[in-house]
Specification:
The complex is a heterotrimer of chains A (157), B (266) and C (787). Chain A is α+β, with helices and mostly antiparallel strands and 157 residues long. Chain A is built from 5 helices and 5 strands, in the order E-E-H-E-E-E-H-H-H-H. A 5-stranded mixed sheet of chain A has the order 2-1-5-3-4, with helices on one face. In chain C, the strands form 7 sheets. A 7-stranded mixed sheet of chain C has the order 3-5-1-12-9-10-11, with helices on both faces. The chains are: A alpha+beta (157), B alpha+beta (266), C alpha+beta (787).
């Protein structure tokens, strides 16, 4: 029985005795107390639960914790520097007013980081299409797109 | 989600054995299966996680075909230099499946084993005349997709790879459902030395080859020839988002666009 | 920034952002109580059925189940109330059927909660729910408002014959008839305003905790107005003393109206928390949200516009059927009446208007206010009929509007409102310039060469915000006051804590309100903290909806600040040995007029709390003031939106290629936040026009669009880059001059987009199309026009 998923979350080795049916998002929120990863739907579409698994954006609501045993996970809590300095993408979201209620924001920021890694100089059109898996109901996306552009520029510096 | 046991075999033999248990089900990327289990629509007693099976991974060119391991994610196929060079239309298809997060987890094998009627891959396999390899045999794409969420796979049978003959020209055009972004209709057109094959997904309970389009494009590989082909609405899906007539109308329209795209890509 | 540069009008970056960006936000489901239990609601799978019996015995013995409650168990629990009484044209009050917290006797829509299961884990609660055996006797269902009125339709409630809630009217039918009799032209329109599902990305959630020590309750709930929630749940439903209930609405992930209301779930959980003597938590799964959040819109309207030969509007006649769903939600009754018919004058001088509304019960989820609430529906009627009239009479779209604009204020409309101020032509002119209307003909011709149809659509909208003067609302049937409260607490060191009854669930009040306070007091924005969303910390409040927060809540804060400054003057006068009358307060300093003798704001605050040298005989120590502000009128934001679309006739795909909005929100405190609010509203309005549609199966009453697989949410690539600008005519009757900006986008966009679609399709012979203009529908319309 592979009952004990152990993985590295935000740079720390963690494990927990959880049922096989435990989703990654449940493991993060309920077992590790990392409540920044949100659940916005039950059909794997809204993207609020997006985390990075070995650097790739993945929906933590559609992955069993056991499936990513041994992986490196980054959640929104793991982005800022220990002294509180925001990751350039976080800073860009603040600067560009890329968030309102904040609920989709963690998933949006992590998707944006994955996006920028693959498309460093992404056009607005590419950014919009690459954010297909992240819903925002507040911003109309305009300032999110602006933030991703600005965050991308800052990440390349 | 209902409770289940999880096993993570490291060999195909172990996986095959595990899948012989009652109500056992294979788990690849889980983007369809875990989603269904969450909604309590699937209830396996044992889940066999295939992710540790090295034999199911990798993408390589094999003479005049590209062989893709069953565990290749959509993102890997989309970005594979091998696929992009040999069958860009297939890389393009993979790049449009789901969204980025889904592409990072979802796999070729998982997708075709699930055979969702709105999935993209079945159209590609049919049009390219692909061959599905399992732990026990090979199955031609034409024989593989047998019905809605049904395939020729037997209990305990595991897809190991899919081999795609390299066409001379090909393109896939998906018309997305405005809500789910799955294929409302998707048409894959492939031209090879032995003729033209057209795979259609999203339009019917199971992906199929359009013989009228194949015949028309076989005679004259042009967008106009595709557009001039009449497709009957009988047997096509009708739902909130599209009537059978609309789907029937879209098939030649998309086929025409695919022919145009095929002409410019290769 | 220096303390002296006013923060008003500055795009200050938001104070709340860091917690949201670092995962430190505290939404309801992020908060846990020790030993909490988990709730799961068993919901009706049928649209209409009698409950013959419920057997919970097997479920109750399932592992880790604490309790299972059904409607019959909730002894002494009242029904969910409706907060607005509408009196019909027959002089009778609306039909107000009981709305049980858990179904009793009958279920009336798919998703109607039937039983509450409480277990140690959510999995266990769900497992147990599957063991509950409900014996249903199913009945035919009706989901459409027009069908529900027909003879022989399934009947939902004994107290509502023919499923009618009320027929209500506003305006002068005789004057309207007379105007139609002399009209040179009459334009007629049949339209359906599609039902929407709000879809805040944070699903509804609650945690109920009962304390045995003082028999009190704490309810954490994703809600837009915690005081109203407390009033309703305690006094109206559970019969609890209000002071024994604390409602906390912590970080809330979007509302858009859907979190205004008192819902069955939190009500049942509060009651149950005392029964099981354990905290109970619940968060809706998205599928539950689709089924059970209050939906929006769903109007079927027949409208007629009478015009003279020059295109001047003579009269407007409107008949609307409003589907209110299975039960009356908290404010359901006022949305298609008070918030709708009153806006039918739009920006125009139409001298006679008559509107009759019939509200109808159907086997669908309750319908209530959703972003805009009544005003998008009104704008949609007015702007689509104006568009069509212009087409029919051969008048340019801007010209017909110019000929009819209201130009003198205050303006009494024939539908009860008095517009205090406005300037409509400047918004239209600026929007046309930004949209490059002059270049449209060229773009259209170029599109035609590519085989595409291009169209341009206008919406010159108005809304009534700043809800509301309590006396007027009361006369119209409101069962609550609609003022707002604010407390300004100056701390001894001069920092300021403000308690507001407004609630922020994305609007950025923690920043905007801090700017208002900092601007008035001449202190840095960072020295101001805004507290909201907790009845235990805030004196009172009516919450956030109807774009009211700054206009009403902000004004309450300004009133409290005035009191602070007045008291500070007295303290300063004492310290400076001057007369109160000689003290002026400016730039954070109390100065003796005409001298350089001054005390800083912080010094005065310190003196108030360390009153060693202080006029104790005449003045209390401390520096904290509360004010209640009741507006004297609504505010009237208005503007012009212009949409440009391109249609692929082969597939029916509508591409929104450009969208321009020029809005007049009065005085703007934070332009960045206002622009963000407009963007979000536009996305929802465009979503309604092109994508979103809530559909029930007409036979079974099942919700066909019950997930994101079938309900099309706007994604980033569905939307263009909006061009947004402002004109400013300050509101004349509140101290900030602010009108409200939260709903404008959702109000103007649907009509603008659909008018653009109609414009594009006109050359193909398409005369009619309802929202959403999905590819399938557009293709069908094109095909029908060709046939």
């Amino acid at each position: 029985m592979p009952g004990l998923p152990s993985m590295n979350v935000n740079g720390k080795a963690v494990s927990a005795d959880v049922e096989p049916r435990t989703l990654l998002v449940e493991f993060l929120r309920d077992d590790l107390g990392l409540t920044g990863t949100h659940v916005g739907c039950d059909t794997g579409q809204c993207g609020a639960c997006t985390v990075l698994v070995n650097g790739m954006a993945v929906k933590a609501c559609t992955v069993l914790a056991a499936q990513v045993a041994g992986a490196n996970i980054t959640t929104i809590e793991g982005l800022a520097a220990p002294d509180g300095t925001l990751h350039p993408m976080q800073a860009a979201f603040k600067e560009c007013h890329g968030l309102q209620c904040g609920f989709c924001t963690p998933g949006m920021v992590l998707s944006a980081i994955d996006l920028v890694k693959r498309h460093p100089g992404a056009s607005e059109e590419t950014i919009r299409s690459e954010l297909e898996g992240n819903f925002c109901r507040c911003t109309g996306y305009q300032n999110i797109v602006l933030a991703v552009k600005q965050g991308a520029a800052a990440m390349s510096r | 989600m209902y409770s289940f046991d999880l096993v993570r075999p490291t060999s195909v033999a172990d996986a095959t054995a595990a899948l012989k248990k009652k109500d056992a089900k294979a788990l690849a990327g889980g983007q369809s299966l875990v989603a269904a289990m969450k909604l309590r629509l699937a209830q396996p007693r044992t889940l066999v996680d295939l992710s540790q099976l090295a034999e199911l991974k990798g993408i390589k060119k094999d003479g005049n075909a590209v062989t893709i391991g069953a565990l290749a994610t959509h993102a890997e196929v989309a970005e594979s230099s091998v696929v992009k060079a040999a069958i860009p239309a297939l890389a393009d298809l993979a790049s449009g499946i789901g969204d980025r997060q889904v592409r990072n987890m979802g796999t070729l094998g998982g997708s075709i084993a699930h055979n969702d009627p709105t999935a993209c891959y079945p159209a590609g396999l049919l049009a390219l005349g692909a061959t599905v390899r399992t732990n026990s045999r090979t199955i031609a794409a034409d024989d593989f997709f047998t019905g809605m969420f049904e395939t020729a796979l037997k209990d305990g049978e595991i897809i190991t790879s899919v081999s795609f003959p390299i066409p001379t020209q090909a393109a896939y055009v998906k018309f997305p459902n405005p809500a789910s972004r799955f294929a409302l209709v998707g048409v894959f057109v492939a031209r090879a030395k032995d003729g033209v094959r057209v795979g259609v997904t999203g339009a019917a309970p199971c992906a199929f080859r359009s013989k009228p389009l194949e015949a028309a494009l076989g005679r004259n590989f042009t967008a106009d020839a595709a557009k001039a082909t009449m497709i009957g609405a009988s047997g096509l899906n009708g739902d909130l988002h599209a009537s059978p007539e609309y789907r029937a109308h879209l098939i030649p329209v998309l086929a025409a666009r695919a022919v145009t795209a095929a002409g410019t890509t290769r | 920034m220096t303390a002296t540069a006013s923060p008003i009008g500055q795009s200050i970056r938001r104070k709340e952002d860091v917690r949201f960006l670092t995962g430190a936000g505290q939404y309801t489901n992020d908060i846990t109580a020790r030993h909490t239990t988990h709730a799961y609601f068993l919901r009706s799978p049928h649209a209409h059925a009698t409950i013959r019996g419920i057997d919970t015995s097997r479920a109750k013995s399932a592992p880790s189940v604490l309790a299972i409650f059904t409607g019959e168990d909730l002894v002494g629990v009242g029904g969910l109330p409706c907060g607005w009484l509408i009196t019909g044209t027959d002089g009778k009050p609306m039909a107000e059927p009981p709305h049980p917290v858990l179904a009793r006797g009958k279920v009336r829509y798919v998703g109607d909660p039937v039983a509450l299961v409480i277990a140690e884990s959510l999995h266990q609660a769900k497992d147990a729910a599957e063991l509950i055996d409900v014996d249903y006797d199913t009945h035919p269902a009706v989901v459409n408002g027009i069908e529900a009125l027909r003879h022989g339709a399934p009947q939902l409630h004994d107290v509502a014959p023919n499923n009618k809630c009320y027929t209500w009217a506003l305006g002068d039918p005789t004057a309207v008839d007379a105007a139609f009799a002399k009209a040179a032209h009459v334009t007629k329109l049949e339209i359906y305003n599609n039902r929407l599902i709000p879809n805040a990305i944070e699903p509804r959630a609650a945690m109920a905790v009962h304390s045995r020590s003082d028999d009190s309750y704490t309810l954490h709930v994703a809600n837009q107005n915690p005081h109203l929630e407390r009033l309703l749940v305690s006094a109206f439903v559970l019969g609890l003393p209000e002071h024994k209930v604390r409602v906390i609405a912590p970080d809330v992930g979007g509302g858009f109206g859907s979190k205004i209301y008192l819902y069955p779930e939190e009500t049942a959980m509060m009651w149950a928390s005392k029964q099981v003597n354990r905290p109970i938590t619940w968060v809706a799964e998205r599928s539950e949200s689709f089924l059970s959040d209050a939906h929006g819109r769903d109007h079927t309207t027949h409208a007629e516009l009478a015009l003279d030969k020059d295109g001047k509007f003579l009269a407007l006649r409107v008949h609307t059927n409003a589907n209110v769903g299975a039960y009356l939600s908290t404010f359901a009754s006022c949305v298609p009446t008070i918030l709708y018919a009153t806006l039918l004058a739009g920006q125009y001088t139409t001298p006679a208007i008559f509107c009759e509304v019939t509200a109808v019960f159907t086997n669908t989820a309750p319908v209530d206010a959703y972003r805009g609430a009544g005003r998008p529906e009104a704008t949609y009627v007015v702007e689509r009929i104006v568009h069509q009239a212009a087409v029919e009479m051969g008048i340019a779209q801007d010209e017909i509007r110019r000929r009819n604009f209201i130009r003198t204020f205050p303006y009494q409309t024939p539908v009860a409102l008095v517009y205090d101020t406005g300037a409509y032509e400047p918004s239209l002119d600026e929007a046309m310039k930004a949209a490059n209307v002059a270049g449209f003909a060229k773009r259209k011709a170029e599109a035609e060469k590519r085989g595409k149809l291009r169209g341009l659509g206008y919406a010159a909208y108005i809304e009534a915000c700043g809800i509301a003067p309590s006396n007027i609302a009361g006369a119209l049937g409101a069962r609550a006051g609609l003022f707002e409260a604010g407390t300004v607490r100056v701390n001894p060191t001069g920092s300021v804590t403000v308690m507001t009854g407004s609630h922020s669930h994305g609007q950025g009040h923690e920043t905007t309100f801090a700017q208002v306070v900092a601007g008035r007091l001449g202190i840095p924005v960072d020295n101001v903290d805004i507290v909201h969303g907790d009845t235990g910390r805030i004196p009172f409040g009516m919450g956030t909806y109807g774009s009211r927060s700054l206009a009403v809540g902000g004004s309450a804060i300004v009133k409290a600040l005035d009191k602070i400054i007045a008291k500070g003057k007295k303290i300063a006068a004492h310290l400076l040995e001057a007369s109160d009358a000689d003290i002026e307060f400016r730039d954070g300093k109390y100065t003796v007029v005409g001298t350089d003798r001054a005390k800083a704001f912080g010094e005065v605050a310190f003196a108030a709390y360390v009153p060693h040298n202080y006029p104790l005989a005449t003045l209390e120590p401390g520096l904290e003031e509360t004010a209640f502000y009741d507006p004297t009128n609504f505010t009237f934001p208005a503007g012009t939106h212009i949409a440009e679309v391109e249609i692929d006739t082969e597939t029916g795909v509508v591409s929104l290629v450009d969208f321009t909005a020029c809005d007049d929100f009065g005085t703007i405190i934070n332009p960045m936040i206002v622009e963000g609010q407009v963007h979000g509203g536009l996305a929802q309005g465009i979503g309604q026009a092109l994508l979103e549609n809530c559909v029930y199966d007409p036979e079974s009453g099942q919700l066909l669009t019950g997930s994101y697989m079938d309900y099309a949410m706007p994604r980033a690539d569905d939307l263009p880059k909006f061009k947004v600008s402002n004109t400013v005519t300050p509101c004349t009757h509140n101290p900030l001059g602010a009108k409200g900006c939260g709903e404008a986008g959702a109000i103007g966009a649907p009509a603008a987009v659909m008018n653009a679609v109609m414009d594009a399709l006109a050359s193909a012979g398409v005369k009619h199309l309802d929202m959403p203009a999905s590819p399938h529908r557009v293709w069908q319309a094109l095909r029908a026009a060709r046939a």
